[in-house]
Amino acid sequence: PVVARAGLHHWEEPVISGTRGSGAVFFSGCNLRCVFCQNHQIATGEVGKCISIERLSEIFLELEAKGANNINLVTPTHFVPQIRKALQMARKRGLAVPIVYNTSGYEEVETLKMLEGYVDIYLPDFKYVDSSLAMRYSHAKDYYEVACAALDEMHRQIGTCSFDERGMMKRGIIVRHLILPGHTADSKRVIKYIKDTYGDDVFISIMNQYTPLPHVSDYPEINRKVTQREYDNVVDYAIDIGVTNG
Would you say 55 and 42 are in contact if contact means Cβ atoms under 8 Å apart? Predict the structure, then answer.
């Protein structure tokens, strides 16, 4: 495995980070190439250190010892076999916190099946319904179909959510959706699909932190921040259709 960063991360959803932080391990590389990526250097594999599986298992235990609420595997898809072995090693040495699989949502079902029994919390993105947007911004025309199948498998494994006495998630699914400027109509389609399909079993995180980095200058329609009005419009829609777990 190639790891770009490991440490306590305090800026995830409150039920993931809490006050102590999430034990985030950022893996180098990504199976998507989103033009607006906020972690561009990590996603393209420009930064990172190749480590042994044994060292990865030690990192998990070190993060737990620092008080991490969970182990948060960020863009882990292409290292799943190595991660499984590292988790096996760490569990034999006492690793007990929940494992979070933090992904773009662009996952093969057979990859996710390899994780059954290893992952407690799935934290996938659900970026698009519209295939033309998926193609233009992530070079993945089939994103919606792949993400639907992946989320279905995650739900089969996890079912409903559960929390500890501190309100931290022990088991569950949180679907993230990043609103893109000018594309609130597709955001609503994403939220409606999740609500209609999974009801209250799945939490929805509606995100407004889109940042127009220099490399989106070739895409003028998204070369700006999301307005407060756009964000409020999507949140109001989610509330109107009955989303409460968000």
Answer: no
Query: Among candidates 145, 152, 125, 151, which has minimal Cα distance to 36?
Result: 125
CA 84 to chain centre: 18
Residue for token pair 């233009």: 136
Instruction: Output the pTM of the full model.
Output: 0.97
**3-state DSSP assignment of residue 174:** strand
Strand partners, 236: none
Residue 107's identity, in one-letter code, is: E
State the Cα–Cα distance between residues 19 and 28, nearest whole angstrom: 27
SS (H, E, C) 67-94: CCCCEEEECCHHHHHHHHHHHHHHHHCC
Compute the distance between CA of residue 68 and CA of residue 79 in angstroms, rounded to an integer. 22
Strands (E), 30-117: 49-50, 71-74, 99-103
Strand partners, 174: 203
- The two most distant CA atoms of the chain are separated, in Å, by 51
- Dump pLDDT digits (tens) for 152-195: 999 999 999 999 999 999 999 999 999 999 999 999 999 999 99
Backbone phi, psi, residue 189, to 5°: -65, -40
Q: How confident is the model at residue 46 (pLDDT cuts 50, 70, 90)?
A: confident
